[in-house]
Amino acid sequence: MQKNHLRIFFILSGFLFLFDQLLKYFAYHNQNFHFYIIKPWLGWEYFANSGIAFGLPVPQIIIFVLTPLILLALGIWWSKNKHKNNYFCLGISLIFAGAISNLIDRVIFSITIDYFRVFTSVMNLADIIIVIGVVLLLYKNKK
């Protein structure tokens, strides 16, 4: 893997992190704003998510302990992996960006700010890039 690609992946992840934070700022400060492309299935709506993925209730202390441990494990995996390819590096950087963005919400607000309504879920860009990162890691490990 070229160093140029790694820089591009970090810049992309950083941009997505900042964009997610900007969207969360807008959602938090405009909680009554709703916009639907297909009401009520697809659109924008503020949701204060006190749980984890899919709103599953998990005590905050567990989230505050597990998130850094998971990120540390990913960092160790990245540093020890001898066969880093583009899928692996992009996947790791996307997971880091999304997880840190959601962790910032938890530290500041004790919730994660979600804003994209998709069917019966409300999610944020950080959630989406975490899922994309995991898919890239799974794809990399399949090859």
Summarize the structure in words:
Pfam families: Peptidase_A8 (PF01252). It is an enzyme of class 3 (hydrolase). The chain is α+β, with helices and mostly antiparallel strands and 143 residues long. The chain has one domain. It has helices at residues 3-29, 60-80, 86-109, 125-142; strands at 34-38, 42-49, 112-118, 121-123. The protein has a four-stranded antiparallel beta sheet. Strand 3 and strand 4 (121-123) form a beta hairpin. The longest helix has 27 residues, at 3-29. The radius of gyration is 16 Å and the shape is globular. The chain starts with a helix and ends with a helix.
Strand line-up of the largest beta sheet:
1-2-3-4
Q: Give the count of helical stretches.
A: 4
Number of domains: 1
β-strand number: 4
State the low-pLDDT regions, or none: none
Our measurement of the CA-to-CA distance between the termini, rounded to an integer number of angstroms, reads 15 Å
Oligomer: single chain
Q: Which class best fits the helix and strand makeup? A: alpha+beta
Described by strand count, sense and barrel closure, the largest sheet is: 4 strands, antiparallel
How much helix, percentage-wise, in residues? 55-70%
**Beta content:** 15-25%
SSE string, helix = H, strand = E?
Answer: HEEHHEEH
- Bulk shape: globular
Mean pLDDT: 92
Gyration radius, to the nearest Å? 16 Å
Provide the fold topology.
Layout: H1 3-29, E1 34-38, E2 42-49, H2 60-80, H3 86-109, E3 112-118, E4 121-123, H4 125-142
Antiparallel strand pairs: 1-2, 2-3, 3-4
